[in-house]
Each structure stands twice: as C-alpha cells, then as structure tokens.
Design goal:
The complex is a heterodimer of chains A (501) and B (164).
Chain A: H1 2-11, H2 14-32, H3 38-49, H4 54-79, H5 90-99, H6 103-136, H7 141-152, H8 155-158, H9 163-177, E1 180-181, E2 188-189, H10 203-223, H11 246-251, H12 253-268, H13 274-288, H14 300-324, H15 330-341, H16 350-353, H17 355-385, H18 391-410, H19 413-431, H20 437-459, H21 465-469, H22 471-500
Antiparallel strand pairs in A: 1-2
Helix pairs in contact in A: 1-17, 2-4, 2-17, 3-4, 3-15, 4-5, 4-6, 4-14, 4-15, 4-17, 5-6, 5-14, 6-12, 6-14, 6-17, 7-20, 7-22, 9-20, 10-18, 10-19, 12-13, 12-14, 13-14, 18-19
Chain B: H1 3-10, H2 12-31, H3 46-68, H4 72-79, H5 86-106, H6 108-123, H7 132-153
Helix pairs in contact in B: 1-4, 2-3, 5-6, 6-7
C-alpha cells in the first residue's frame, strides 16, 4: 500500500494529469487515423519526454499507448479501415453494425470494453506480474513455434465459406513476409535486386493497403451506382449513454472476461502483441459462441472480443518490460527507450530502486483507462457525426493521412508504394472472395514460425523431437490440431446441411 | 473448349485457383535464386519452398473442388463477376499511382491537393453536384495543415518538391 501512495504522489499532480489528458487525446487521434499508430505517436513524442521528469515522461508515453490502441476502433467501425493493426478484427462486426445504422452502439461497446480490457490487464500487471514474467521467459524457440502454429490454426474461423481460400490467404501473408533479409542467415530473399525491398514490407503499409486502398477502390466501383448513397444514415437522437442496454452489457460479460484473458496472455509473451491478440480473441470467441454464423454480420460480440483483447494486451505487454526489461512489442520497445533515456533500467531491481516510477506507471494506466473512457464517451457523438461527411470527401482525406503514416515508417517512398501494391492485392482478394484477415495473420505470424523453427533446430542440432516433447509446445500443438479438426468437421457438416436443403 | 469448362474457369473459385497456382509457381521459381547457407540447419530457402508447395497443392484442391461442384445453371450466375464500374476503379488506381509518382517532383502539398480534388470527384455519385472550388479549398487546407503539423511538430520530412 505504501508503494501505491508513493506512486500516487508522483502522478497525482496537475502537470502529470494534464500530460495524461494530452497523451490520451493525441493517442486517440493517432489511433483513429489509419496510417498513424500508437507506435508512431510514442516514437514522435519520445524526444519531447527528454525535457520532462522521468515520471512525467513515462506517464505521457503510457497515455499515448492506451489512447493509441483504443482509438483504432473509431475508423475500423466507421469506415471499415482499421486505425491500427490492433483493430483489424474490429472491422468484421463493427462495420456491418455501422451499415445497419448502429454505429453509436458499436462505438459505445468498443469504448466500454476497451476500458474493461485495460483495467483487467492493469490489475493483473499489478498483482501477478512477477509470476507471469517467470512463466513468459520459459517460452523459447520451440514454444514460440508452437504458439505460432496455434495462432495460424485460428484461420478456420476467419476463412468464411472456404477453408482452402482462408489457408491460401494466410500462405500469401507468410510469403510476402519472406521478402527481405532473412533474419537468421542474413540472406536477401525475393528482393529482385531492389535495395529497398531488402528491408522487406512493414506491417503498417501492408495493412493500410489491404484495407484503406481496397476500400477506396471498392467505393470507386460503387460510386457510379445510381442508388448508392454517399453517406450512411445514422440516427443519433434518442440514444442514451454509450448506446447499448444494460442487458446487452450483461450478455457480453463472460465474452469480455474471456477476451481479456486472451489479450493479457498474448500481450505477456514477448514479440507478440495486440495485432495478433485481437484476431485470435475474435476467432476464439466465435468458436466458443452458440451462434458463430452471426459473426461478421454485425453483432456486438465481435467488437467486444477484439476491443477487450487489444487493450488487455497493453497491461500484458508491460509485464515482461517492467519485470524483466524485455519489451513485448514495438510500442513497449519504445517505452523501454523512454525509461533508459532517463537512466532507468527496467527489470526486477526497478521494483525496489524506482518504486515511484513502477507504481506511477500502474496509477497512470488506471487514470489513462478512466480518462480514455470519459474522453471517448464525450467524443462518441462527434465521431459518429463524421459519417455525415460524404464518402467521396472522407476517403481521399483518410488516404492522405495513410500516405503520411506510411512515409513516416522509415521516411522513404518505398513504404508509400507498398501501400498501393497491397491495395491492389486487397482489392483483387475481395474480387475473388478471398478473405484478407488470414493474410494479415499470416504476415505477422509467418516470420515468428520461421525464425523459431530454424532457431529451435539450431539448438536441437537438427532434431524435431524437442518441438513435441516440450510441455508448453505440446499443449499448443495439440490445441492447433484440435482446432483444425473441429474446423474441418464444421465445414463437412455445413456442406452436408446444404446438400440436405 | 466446351461450355462447362469455359464456365469452370470463369467462376470465381476457378480464377482464384488459377491465380494461386500461377503465383506459387512464380514464387517457387524465384526461391531457387535464394543463396543456400551451409552454416544453418535449415537455409533461408526452406520456408519459402514449403509455402510455395503447400499453396500449389491447395490451389489444385480448389480447382478440383471447383470442377466437382460445377453446376451449369448456378455457375452461370456465379461466374458473372459483379458488373460495377471497373472504369472508375482503373481511374482511381491510376490516379493513386500518379499521385505517388509526382509527389517527389511537385511535393506533398501540391500532389495531395490535386489528388484530393480528383479523387473526390471520382468517388462522388452520379447526379451529385461537384463543387470544385470547395474541394480545392478543403484539399489545400488538409494538405498544408498536415504537412506543417508533421514537418514542424514531429519532424517528418514529407517530400517538399517545387514549393520549398
């Protein structure tokens, strides 16, 4: 308790609270604009924290992180373009809800469950972080490989009608992820002599292309249709609170808890973050649901799963950072930079030497979660009002920001051209009815599987046995097999039902 | 080619299968250029080959499934790709290509302003009134505002081109 008082003393002052408010608002804006992400917000603000005290600096970065991850839901729900990789799966049910005229409800659900996800993972971080960190470091190459395979086995529920197309899409993702310098042997692959391609494709331009450009091309295709409306009709009048009922909230309680656990669990594992957590949580909740066929048609369950899990990954990612000094994803790598910038080394000693910072971070996370809820609640109607803008004006405006975001990744035009390339691919995928979500999953998971398979084989001197004998790996591989078998059975049943009809 | 076979390859699944086969062959051929390492157990070419082979097999499965499920009556409707405005899609793609192409020459502000005006006109529906003056103003404000925000506050050096 004394430690909490020390942390509260460090954070509960006007300058720090103001910095949290600024961080949350900026984070939400960065998260909401496709192309600009939480990672970019922290990277851009990192030099600014140099002039602040260590606590104030880290508090600002934490607020940017929370706001940035949560803000992604706004564009995902309102425009079908995810603001960040963490909100890719939010599009699946968020956008259909908007099309049904229920954008306020979708946003409200997303905001409240983002808050719950952040809160849940923060509580876990405060009370269980040392135990969880010790578990996380047990993950070696074999376990990561198995986890990667398990994540890929979720494709079944993301594939839509054809499992073959879903797997093919994921394979395309894995294939495009192989472009660039090989991470083990430093050998260039598929660069075709182009210097920029040796760096490979970054996830941000790939995601922008697959979703934003593909959406613009789709809008261009539909714009000449005489019955096509340029705006979506939303009735804001009469909507109270967050736009959903208490009964709806109660019906999602277990879903939210389940997704929080998935998000926190995935966040804890270094190298895997909210980008994967939201897709896996969506698939897991869909598989568990009594009405999986309704997913993708616009039900709040999908939004709850993705938004709770991606925000829960925040607290999870901070577990290895604070306890072991190991960043869980790119954002926490920047936070690590922010801490070291002020001469603080995260790790077990931090809990005794920098109590004010550690507990300051905990308090800042809690305050950020509450402020995020309030700011997004008061902004809810303003966000929905964006839909009053005609698509013809909104989409080109968003694309200009996408260009800035893609350019800002490495300050080079190659990433901007990548957006166009993957936009073409995304549009083509839509035309041949190949789902794009498995592509993104494959693009993120592919390198994890490859690197850990090859690294594991180097450790075992070419033997595959440890991949099966490691207890954690065995659990994940068995779960993957089970997931694939169940998907196969579901597919066969669906076909048999169709035939009988 | 008889009617059935023609429709088989015109159906979406057929197109998808053929595309996947072609891509897997291209990818497998390109993977032969990867330098083979003698130091590590599995070289850099191992996973690309696995991906390529699996995709090839899956594509064959898709084509076989497609030909099995073929029902001439249904296929005729399925095969008909949605008749939407392909011309507009092509123009949008071309416009984006030109936008990115000229950005380094004329700079972010001019290129983005022009892109905004033309793209907004392309996306506006038939019969809607196009206010070019307003679009130009909004496009210019958006481009200038974002350029200065990112250039001065966040030090992202967007292409400046002719203006600076």
């Amino acid at each position: 308790m004394d430690n909490f008082i020390i942390g509260a003393q460090a954070v509960l002052n006007l300058p720090s609270i103001l910095l949290i408010v600024i961080g949350i608002i900026t984070g939400i804006i960065f998260g909401a604009i496709p192309g600009l992400s939480a990672t970019m917000a922290i990277a851009l603000f990192l030099p600014i924290t140099y002039g602040l005290s260590p606590t104030q600096g880290i508090v600002l970065l934490i607020a940017l992180y929370v706001g940035g991850i949560s803000g992604g839901l706004i564009s995902a729900i309102l425009t079908h373009i995810p603001g960040t990789p963490s909100s890719v799966a939010t599009c699946f049910d968020g956008w259909p809800l908007t099309q049904k005229g229920q954008a306020t409800k979708a946003l409200g659900v997303g905001i409240v469950f983002s808050f719950i996800g952040t809160l849940f993972s923060t509580i876990i971080l405060i009370f269980l972080s040392p135990i969880l960190a010790r578990f996380a470091i047990k993950f070696g190459a074999y376990e990561y490989f198995a986890l990667g395979i398990f994540s890929l086995s979720m494709i079944g529920s993301l594939s839509g009608k054809s499992l073959a197309k879903g797997i093919s899409s994921a394979l395309f993702g894995c294939m495009f992820a192989t472009v660039g310098i090989d991470m083990i042997g430093a050998v260039p692959r598929f660069s075709f002599g182009v210097q920029s391609m040796k760096m490979g494709f970054n996830i941000l331009p790939v995601m922008i292309g697959m979703f934003a450009v593909a959406e613009i091309l789709k809008a261009a295709e539909e714009s000449r249709h005489p019955l096509q409306s340029e705006t979506i009709k939303i009735n804001i009048k009469g909507i109270k609170g967050f736009g959903f009922s208490w009964a709806e909230f109660r019906s999602q309680w277990s879903n939210g808890l389940y997704s929080s656990l998935i998000g926190t669990g995935i966040g804890i594992l270094p190298g895997i973050g909210g980008g994967i957590a939201n897709i896996i949580a969506y698939s897991a909740v869909k598989n568990k649901s009594k009405y999986p066929e309704k997913f993708g048609s616009g039900i709040i369950d999908g939004v709850v799963a993705t938004e709770t899990s991606n925000n829960a990954a925040i607290g999870g990612a901070l577990v290895p950072l604070l306890c072991l000094g190991i960043p869980g994803d790119t954002v926490t790598a920047m936070l690590l930079g922010g801490l070291t910038l002020h001469g603080i080394s995260p790790g077990p000693l931090m809990f005794t030497q920098n109590v004010d910072i550690v507990y300051g971070i905990f308090i800042a996370l809690l305050i950020s979660a509450v402020l995020m809820l309030l700011i997004e609640f008061y902004g809810l109607r303003a966000f929905v009002a964006l839909l009053k803008l005609p698509k013809s004006t909104l989409l080109p405006g968003i694309f200009i920001f996408c260009v800035i975001g893609a350019f800002g990744v490495n300050n080079q035009m190659f990433d901007v051209w990548t957006v166009l390339l993957f936009g073409g691919i995304g549009y083509f995928f839509n035309k041949i009815k190949m789902p794009t979500a498995p592509f993104i999953l494959g693009f993120i998971i592919g390198p994890i599987i490859e690197v850990n398979l090859r690294r594991g084989l180097m450790f075992s001197q070419g033997s595959f046995a440890p991949f099966i004998t490691s207890p954690i790996a065995t659990v994940f591989l068995s779960a993957s097999l089970l997931s694939l078998v169940l998907s196969g059975i579901k597919n066969i049943r669906r076909k048999m039902d169709k035939k009988s009809i | 080619m008889d009617y059935k076979i023609m429709h088989r390859f015109k159906s979406i699944d057929g197109i998808c299968g053929i595309f996947c086969i072609m891509f897997s062959i291209f990818y497998l051929l390109a993977s032969t250029n990867i330098h083979k390492s003698t130091v590590v157990t599995l070289g850099a070419e191992f996973m690309p080959r696995i991906y390529g082979i699996v995709l090839f097999i899956l594509s064959c499965v898709q084509i076989i499934n497609c030909s099995r499920n073929i029902q001439v009556q249904n296929t005729a409707t399925e095969a008909r790709l949605e008749k939407n405005d392909k011309r507009n899609v092509f123009l949008t793609f071309l416009l984006t290509f030109c936008y990115l192409g000229i950005m380094q020459i004329v700079g972010f502000i001019i290129a983005s302003t022009l892109y905004f005006v033309v793209q907004a006109s392309l996306l506006s529906s038939i019969g809607s009134k196009r206010r070019y003056g307003l679009l130009l103003l909004v496009g210019a404000l958006l481009s200038i505002g974002s350029y200065y925000a990112f250039h001065t506050v966040f030090h992202i050096s967007l292409p400046s081109g002719l203006l600076f």
